[in-house]
Specification:
Layout lengths: L1 H16 L11 H20 L5 H15 L4 H35 L2 H11 L6 H13 L4 H19 L3 H18 L4 H9 L4 H30 L26 H24 L6 H10 L1 H19 L4 H11 L4 H19 L2 H10 L5 H19 L2 H12 L1 H5 L4 H15 L8 H10 L3 H26 L5
């Protein structure tokens, strides 16, 4: 009898820990909403006040949310680990491949080749527009921090050689880089939101480029005219090159411009072609469409870009095999923190879903009228609040996407509407970079700005991108409603 009792207890224990057993809660709605608010506040305070790493903050906030929502400790942990694993399975590979490719592009000299080719052919008047294009092209395959570190020397060198004010060159470049980071996969924020909101990556990429174009134009070349009047600073005495010293650098081997540009645009082209074909010929099963679908799968498209880049960029840059392998190896450790944050964001989302908090929030938002435009605007506001509080665009995107995920089901959103929801959140995640954002301090220190000057240039530029972005998203909403 005792053995039977012990067996029954063990069976109950394993049943409670069985991933097939969905966590449930029967708490009243007021308790669920309170749990969500306290959990989000906990995450914000841990990141901003306690200066705790966002991964640990999201983990602790998830536990607080689940327990306050009436879930058991076992259920909460199960939800978090399930969401973490699902998110890493869908997004982690893409982030890793993007990091590998970005490092290859930088180490081979391909990025330098593109910058030099574009800038050398531009007049002084056209330079801000060219630099916006440079920022967008370099920002397309690279994480924001990597692109920023790569482009800062370019910005300083172009300003020094052209005679333009530093801010007139810097703002357009940073606008192109930032817009790609917020709107266009394969950046971590958009990728994670696409996975959480079940959006189509090809359609999101297409809409993201459409939204990014006016955002970059208005916040970059146009706004930089005003910003250059507000902020006047000397060009830092940094990155003085051999060319600046009069040394001949013509024998330095780098990939050809066409090769580097082809390599950058390859993954985006594969995903866009697959998306367009599926829109034009839905449900097609021809061999050509099957192949395009395969190549347009995000992980495959990025893998193709990495493999092609290893040969084209590596050979074009004169990199021996060992140097190419070193570039690949050293690209992965710096993104460990990003991967953990993205995974933890997925875990927090799953706690919201399994505790039914997400459904309650979705019902509240739906109660505003159910209009897609209103939902998109509310999604932007949610992301703005989290961004301003935490300083992290990635955390803001992932957290907002997790909160709003139940809307996809409850409002029966189309794939296009889900893509616009991703972009509305992305726009909100860029709003008002200030003193709690690492990017703010990087810009300040690299360009020798004061805090006030950084706020009047970089921070205002981010706000312009965000506002123009959400207005563009709203303008596109009738096409998918």
């Amino acid at each position: 009898m005792a053995l039977s009792t012990q067996t029954s207890a063990l069976a109950s224990l394993f049943a409670a820990a069985d991933p097939a057993t969905p966590p449930t809660t029967t708490a009243p709605e007021w308790q669920l909403v309170t749990a969500a608010l306290i959990g989000i506040a906990c995450i914000v305070l841990l990141i901003t006040w306690a200066k705790l790493h966002p991964f640990l903050s999201l983990l602790i906030g998830s536990l607080v949310t689940g327990l306050l929502a009436g879930m058991s400790a076992t259920q909460t942990i199960l939800s978090f680990t399930t969401g973490f694993g699902n998110t890493m399975g869908s997004v982690g590979v893409l982030i890793a491949l993007g990091a590998v490719y970005g490092k290859l592009l930088a180490d081979s000299g391909g990025a330098d080749r593109i910058v030099d080719a574009l800038v050398s052919r531009a007049s002084v008047r056209a330079l801000p527009w060219i630099m916006a294009l440079v920022g967008a092209l370099i920002g397309l395959p690279m994480f924001f921090e990597v692109g920023l570190v790569l482009l800062v020397p370019v910005i300083i060198l172009v300003a020094r050689r052209s005679g333009l004010p530093l801010i007139r060159v810097a703002i357009p470049t940073l606008a192109g880089l930032s817009a790609m980071h917020g709107f266009v996969p394969p950046h971590p924020g958009p990728l994670a939101a696409i996975g959480l909101l079940h959006a189509n990556i090809g359609i999101t990429l297409l809409f993201g480029v459409i939204v990014a174009i006016p955002a970059v134009i208005i916040s970059g070349p146009l706004f930089s005219r005003l910003a250059a009047r507000w902020v006047t600073v000397p060009i830092p005495e940094l990155f003085v090159t051999d060319e600046d010293r009069g040394v001949d650098t013509s024998d330095k081997k780098r990939p050809a411009f066409g090769v580097a540009l082809f390599s950058i645009l390859l993954p985006a082209a594969l995903m866009l072609i697959a998306a367009i074909v599926n829109i034009v010929i839905p449900g097609g099963t021809s061999p050509v469409q099957v192949v395009l679908d395969f190549l347009g799968t995000p992980s495959i498209a990025l893998l193709v870009a990495v493999v092609v880049g290893m040969f084209l960029l590596g050979r074009g840059g004169g990199m021996p095999k060992a140097k190419v392998m070193e570039s690949v190896t050293t690209s992965l450790p710096p993104i460990a923190g990003i991967l953990l944050i993205v995974g933890a964001g997925g875990g927090f989302k799953q706690v919201l879903v399994d505790s039914t908090i997400g459904s309650v929030i979705a019902n509240v938002i739906s109660g505003f009228g159910g209009s897609l435009a209103i939902v998109l605007l509310l999604a932007w506001v949610v992301a703005v609040l989290i961004r301003v509080a935490t300083g992290s665009a990635t955390v803001a995107t992932i957290t907002a996407a997790g909160i709003l995920e139940p809307l996809i089901t409850s409002m029966h959103m189309s794939t296009g509407a889900a893509s616009l929801l991703v972009l509305a959140i992305g726009a909100g995640s860029l709003f008002l970079s200030h003193v709690n954002d690492a990017g703010f301090w990087l810009i300040k220190e690299y360009f020798g700005l004061s805090i006030g000057q950084t706020l009047k240039s970089w921070s205002v530029m981010e706000c312009v991108i965000s506002v123009v972005g959400i207005l563009s998203v709203l303008a596109l909403s009738p096409l998918v409603a």
